[in-house]
Structure formats: C-alpha cells, structure tokens
Amino acid sequence: MAAKKLNIKDKYRLLTRDLDWEFSYQDRNKAFPFEEFEGIKITDWSKWEDPFRLTMDAYWKYQAEKERKLYAIFDAFAQNNGQLNISDPRYVNALKIFLTGVSPLEYQAFQGFAHTGRQFGGVGARVACQMQSIDELRHVQTQVHAMSHYNKFFDGLQDWSHMHDRVWYLSVPKSFFNDARAAGPFEFMVAIGFSFEYVLTNLLFVPFMSGAAYNGDMATVTFGFSAQSDEARHMTLGLEVIKFLLEQHEDNVPIVQRWIDKWFWRGTRLLTIVSMMMDYMLPNKVMSWKEAWEVYFEEAGGALFKDLARYGIRMPKYADIIEKEKEHVSHQAWWTFYTHGHAAGFHTWIPTDEELDWLSEKYPDTFDKYYRPRWELAKEMEAKGERFYTKALPQLCTTCQIPMLFTEMDDPTQISYRDSIYKGDRYHFCSDGCKDIFDDEPEKFVQSWLPVHQIFQGNCGGPDVEDILRDYYQMNVGVDNMDIKGSPDEERWKKWKGVA
Amino acid sequence: MSKVYIALQDNDESRYIVEAIEEDNSEATVIHMPAMIRIEAENFLAVKRETVEEKMGRDWDVQELHVNLITLGGNVDEDDDQLTLTWNE
Predict the structure, then answer these.
(1) Taking an 8 Å Cβ-Cβ cutoff, which residues of chain A contact chain B?
(2) Where is the YHS domain (chain A) (predicted)?
(3) To bridge A82 with a disulfide, which of A77, A199, A380, B16 should be the other Cys (CB 3.0-4.6 Å)?
(4) Best interface-test mutation with A: which of B3, B6, B8, B9 has the largest number of A CBs within 10 A?
(5) Could you say which of B5, B66, B89 has the minimum Cβ distance to residue A229?
C-alpha cells in the first residue's frame, strides 16, 4: 500500500516537534544562555505555531521558483537596456539611497535572525528564524544584482558597503539595526520581526515599489515584490512572536509594551528617509507619503493594535505625535538633504513647478504654509546662480542619529530639541520619543558613534568637508554629490536621449 | 471593524486567484495599483484552493500563493484547503 501523503499540518508537526531532543546530560540553560536575561518568561515552547506551516522542502521549492522568475526579469531588463525606460534620471537617486541605506540592513537582518534563531529553545521559532535569515540573505543578494546594472550607467552606486559604514546619514539605518542586534533575542524579535516587519517594511516595499513600477523600473519593482513575498511570511512570524510572548506569561506584557514603544518610535524615525523618497524622488507619483502612512500605519497598524488589546497591549507611545508628523517629515527631510546636497552621495534638486503643485494638493494644511515658500526662495537663489549649500555640520540626535531637522508638531517653525544629563555629560535628542529611549538605556546609547562628533574629533580625516567626502567616505566629489543640474548623470542621460 | 488585506503581484496567475477571492468573499474590495492588486475586507478573507483550481483549470497548492504574494494583514491560518485572514474584535 502506498504511503498516505502527509497534509501540511502533519508535515509541519514532524519537522518542528519530532526533530527536537531533550537535554539529558547537559544543562539546558547553558545551551540557550540568552533566553532568560531579558526577563521574558516562556513556560511552553510547544505552543509556538507557524500559521503558514512551511516546511523546508516547500520553502526551497517556492523560493527557487521566486528566484527563477526574478532573475529572468533582471536578464530581460539588462538585455533591453531597461535603464533607458525609467521616467527620469532623478529617480535613480532613490536607488542610491536604497542600495547604501537599505540593502546593508538586509544583510544585518540575515545575521540577526541567524543569531536569534540559535538562541531560542523552541524548535518552531528556530525553524522560522532560520528561514527568515536565509530570506534576508537572498534579499541583499538580489538587490545588489539588480542595482549592479544601474551602476554601469549612473554614479554613486560604486561603493555602497563602505559608504554604509561611514557616511553621516547612513549611520541612521546602520545604528538602528546595530541597536536591535545588540539587544537580547526577544527584543530583537519585537524590534525587527514585529515592529519593523509588520508595519514599517510595508511602507517601503509596497507603495514605494509600486512607484518604482510606475517610473519604469522593472528590476527594482520585481526584487521589491519578490522580497516582500517573503516579508508576508516575516510579518506573520512577527505577529506570532508577539502573541506567543503575551500568552506565555502576564509578566511579559509590560516588557513587550516597552519594546513596542521603543521600536515603533525608532522605526518611525528611520522611515523619514522613505517619506522623502516617496514624495520627492519618484517623478511619477503613485500616492503621497501621508496617504501611504494612513493605509499602512494607521489603518493596518490600528487594526493590529485593536487585535492585541485583549492582551493588555496599547498603541505605541507618542502615536499622537506620529500622526501629526505625516504632514511634515518628508518636506523637512528633503529640505535638509537639499541644503546638505554637497555632502550627500546622491543628487538633490528643487521640485518642478508641477511637483510643487502636487505637493500643495496632497498636503493642503501644511505645504503652502510652511514648505512651499522655502522652495520658491530656493528657486530665486538658484536663478541668480546662488544655489544654496549650508556650510555647517548638523547637530545629531544621540538616539536616532538624524540631524535635528524635526519641528515641534504644535509649532512647525520651531525645531524640536530635548536633552538629558547622564554622568555629567549632556546628550541631545530630536524628540521626547528619542529622549525616553536614551533615558531607559543610557549605558547603551552613550556609545553612539555619531558621525558629526567623529568628524569634529578628527576621526574621519579632513579637515575640510571635501577631504572627508573624498578620502574617508570614498565619494567621487563633484560627480556623486551636488545638484542633479549639471551632474554627469544628467549629461549622460541627455546624450542617450538625444536632447541638448 | 478592521480591515484584513492581501496584495498580489499583477500577473496572469494572480488574475485567477483574485477572481476566486472575489467569488468567495462577496464583501471584498479589489484595488488595482501599478504592478499590484490589493484586496481588502472587513475582519475576514479566505483564499480557497477549490475555487482557485476551478478558475485556473489545474491543481493548485495553497502554498503556491507565496510566489505571487506581496503582503498581507491579519492573523493567518493556512491548511491544505485554504488560507484565511482574520482580526479578532
């Protein structure tokens, strides 16, 4: 008689239960040394369930199929000179941020999930983390492959890994992941598996990638959606982690809530750069940052927190501030990069009149009042040959490492500053959210590697900004940076398109 | 009431999956965006193997959904016959 084909529930049970063993002559606590120090109490790992019930054989089968589809499109894109079909060369600058700022995070996620998976005593959680770790490695590889084609035709993509380690604004994403990976395994899962994957990656990989498609970038939309198909599994893992922790012991609830407060705030700050990519760097617009925020943060996140309310979990702290910020952050961030455009590894520009009108329409309560006048002034200055670049280095927030560019939400003309004194030294923050995080873990955050401090301490070469950009960041000064107007990227594009 | 949602890549296979979802979830809203299709519904959505197979005219494993999936929201439950998304109110 032929063996009966197993259904997926049985297959999953065999993989995740019957592969584990009891520790008979070794101390179990020594095998999983990080499981208890965060204060999380696990009473029964067998309660862990992966709702997709994905087993390794199915995992390899479907991942291989995704890769085949993806690489067929990369080949077609390269063979057909797909770079010529993008909407506008300005668009490629969003990819430069992606490759230097986001792709290295995929690599950090790969390392983080490999480490975290090893530390869990439950085999279901270990298998899920192992799959996610392999996914993340696939993501960094596919992103590098996709963008290697652009590197043949555009500047600023040549040294992304080096830039990620050194360039001032890239310390924002780098330190975010370093913070998560330096935490215990359960905090890492709440930080990356839940807060980051469940709510925040959607904002990058769904509306932004749809925008990539709308701007003719076949390669990026394809790796984006291919990666995001793994994210659907990661989001589900993140939600299962939270439910599992909350169901295991009531003492876990306040710990998890504190991590949710911390990581939603950290994640919101990190997404500032995505907000400006959406509103300012996609020449063909799909939706505004504010609209994307409403769908993926407020609606999706709101539904999630309503679901979690039965465990005693509430919305993340400062959700009220976060709600107001959607009207402002993209404008404040792009203005900061525009005025620091000489020190960025990508090009910046003044939005076209058509784009300014679009922003006025999408942000009726804030754009004309606070932000459009700045761009009108920038246009006047540029017309007089006085394109503005600031001479100063910005003050950075010790927690998120973002320049002090955020304003008070009650008064968007007033920059928001907070500070704390710890062991006689004063530390500066962009917000109450970042100050709280520091005050909760000062010994961790006093170690922040703040790029501007490092420059002033002489640790980044110099003495001039241009020396640092050239020698320490390894940027091609005058090529990778400055305005798109007059850049080699623009010159080449005009030549390809046969315009003067 | 909260919305559960699923987004699929806009391609030939997804077209049948979307048809099946529409048939099995009469309250669902289908939103077309560049390169993707988002389907949302109040509190509950099901993707049923039998209906997808009927639309595609071939055998279809629920786990094949992963190949065209972009994102989803809601508590997931998947077995050999269907994938469901729910929010607990």
Answers:
(1) 7-9, 51-54, 58, 62, 65-66, 69, 202, 205-206, 209-211, 213-214, 221, 225, 228-229, 231-233, 235-236, 239, 286, 299-300, 302-304, 306-307, 310
(2) 410-449
(3) A77
(4) B9
(5) B66
- Which of A7, A69, A286 is nearest residue B34 as measured by Cβ atoms? A286
User: What is the reported pLDDT for A3?
Assistant: 65
The token pair at A136 is 């993340």
Residue B48, SS3 per DSSP: strand
Beta bridge partners of B47: B83
Please state the domain extents for chain B: 3-86
**Mean pLDDT in residue range A164-184:** 97
Name the nearest CA neighbour of B16 among B60, B46, B71. B60
Residues of B in contact with A233 (CB under 8 A): 66
Helix or strand run (H / E) with residue A429: strand A425-429
Query: A10-27: buried (b, 16+ CB within 10 Å) or exposed (e) per residue?
Result: ebbbebbeeeeeeeeeee
CATH code matching the domain that covers A26-345, chosen among 3.40.462.10, 3.30.70.360, 3.40.50.720, 1.10.620.20: 1.10.620.20
Name the minimum distance, in Å, from the CA of A447 to any CA of chain B.
36
- Please judge whether A299 and B3 are an interchain contact, meaning their C-beta atoms are less than 8 angstroms apart: yes
Tens of pLDDT, residue by residue over A39-82, are 999 999 988 888 888 888 889 999 999 999 899 989 999 999 99
ipTM greater than 0.90 = no
